[in-house]
Fold this sequence. Notes:
- Helices cover 4% and strands 56% of the residues.
- It is mainly beta.
Amino acid sequence: MAALLTTFRARALTSAALAGLAAMSAVPAFAQDAAADTGGLEEIVVTAQHRQERLQDVPIAVSAVTASALRESGVDTTRDLPQIIPSVQFTRSGPSGLFFVRGVGTTNAAAGEEGANAVYVDGVYMADLGQTINYFNNIERVEVLKGPQGTLFGRNATGGLVHVITREPGDEWVLDGDFGYANYETVSARAYVAAPITEGLSADIAVTRYHQNEGWGRNLTRGDKNFIQDYSGIRSKIVARPTDRIKLILSGDYLENRDNPVGWRIADGTIGTGLSRGPDVPGTPAGAVVADDHDTTANDLALTKQRIYGGSFTGEFDLGFATLTSVSAYRNTRTNSDFDVDGGPISLIRIQFLSGMKSFQQEVRLASTGSGPLQWQFGGFYLNTKANNTSFFSGGAFGTARGQDVRAKLDSNSYAAFGEATYAITPTTKLTGGIRYTEDRRSFDASQFTILANGTALPGGTVTNPSGQPLTAPGIQRTKLKYNQVTWRAALRQELTPDISVYASANRGFKSGSYSLQNPLNDPYLPQTIMAYEIGFKSELFDRRLRLNLAAFHYDIDDYQVRSAAAANPGSSLVLNAATVKVDGVEFEFEAKPTDNLRLFGGATWLNSRYGTFGGAGQNFQAPIVYPVIAGQTAAATCPAALRGTRNPGVVPAGGVWTGGYVTCFGDASGNKVSNAPDFAASFGATYTVPLGDERELRLTGLYAFNSGYYFEPDNIAKQDEYHLLNASIEYRSSEHLGVEIWGRNLTNTDYAVQKITTGTGTTQSNGAPRTYGATVKFNF
């Protein structure tokens, strides 16, 4: 492990920090109730190991954020989590939300695709990426588990997972809510009501409404609004306790969303096909229409309509020696989207698609409840998904044809059995081991046809896929896949004092392979596997006035799944397998309460995430690397066969004139940075409460976040530079039941891209939220 740590870029800082923290182990420990009496930090209980445990007792790096901390920091959706958890990055691709944890994630957002970081709500796996965008209302807390969770959670949790835990109704009436108005003519309202119905039976309902009438930007070609949103959601839960040994939970939710969340524009410093220009391009003619910030010059309107609903039934049965838990759930997503992919005023690439996913899952767990040295649990998991995608690609990129018609269906069945046990070798030393077997079976039925101007449909491919396997028929692929993997976990935790512990762990995880529903005549992409090694330090010091956690980690990832739009048909994308990825990192998080009225919190993550091998001589997969289209130069001249597989596989003549768009060559990206993996990210926040007497108080909160920047694609050409975000709020509470908050987010109005995509027609980008501010009236009874 010492050899491992020497590879970290921040090794000097890590050594100093570990030495300092080790010295702190001499600080006298105090009982938890004593800490509470002195106004220490709130105790946080998590379910990272499918048990209720203190955050500090879990040998896993976990960021747990309570509902109050989320509200105070101005974080009200999953997309804002990176502002408060530096190891997490989030990007939006059309209707899909994509999480990256410690630099591990997927940029593929096509219908039917699952993320590399699992998202759960109340123990239910969100199989569709559109379900990962969650507006917080009746939230109890959000847990982010870092590193592969290949044993207990398992399903595609290669980088980690995000678990949203909602509130449960009890035996008391609860009424919470707020009404707000913000710039861009934004109106929001949230309400949560919980009540006992009879003895042992209670229910709640949470309603959310959000309407943004004015866009963050304008469509300069059409005159439309750009970046608007209209969201409505409802969630309800019924909890029955027929005996003191049985708890039954019935949950349901429904939401509708209508927005244009991407609003592509031509990226900064680039030229699209037809000489459409982004900002900051030298030689741009005076008077040229150029879209900046949240504006666009797209000739087609970007719009997404989503309908998502589902229900779950959870039963918990106390058997005395163990607890039996059953979780059954059904989810349904329907999406209708329309995108102008090229982002310019010329009709080049337009995608219209209707997609959906239905999923059913069943999990059963049996977990020991005894107080002896051995704690165990085992169970089984089943998931069935049915994904479909109907897409039509049109525009000038398809010449005289009307466009391309793609239809695909993917049915998947996943079976898993797992077990984990923790043994207390001594009262302060615990060893954990777990194993999981997963088998995935997929059935794929798809077609791809070019529709000519006269309506004739021609097969969109040859009689074989790229690897030479015969298609079912020209333009049609019907096939099946089967993958199985064994994943495991081992961890050792040593308690130094009742408030300080260290741990070391090794984990193996995997993300299943599949077919692309957007590019259906290609080969399947392979499963992605990860081996993760981690050491960590957890502490609560000074009568629990300070909580300080530190971790260092190393990942080896094989067959890393990478999306490439540059290597695909116009407007679509395909998934490639980079041979290997290496990740080294160090992170810390802290929360402090130096006085009863002041709370400080923050953290930082250092990453060195790079492709170990992606392309090069003798490799099965070569990395897509783009070069500008040069006047008078053919694609073959730009990408000579002799340079294929080299570090620089393209040729751009000196003095060549860029006419817009790109040519994709294939070469060696080994050593390049992995997408959405900043070298450094950090956040720091503070909340100060000023008592005013008679239950009145004033609460001041600020949150600062820094990101060193990241690349979007393996060739490391499209990039977001470093940026800073600042949120702040002032809340006046006239009583414990009523309050008014004035808030602002991204107060510096930082312009930053959350996504850039390069295709043959150019590079387009979509930006994060601009400066927003408003007022909110809050009530709780």
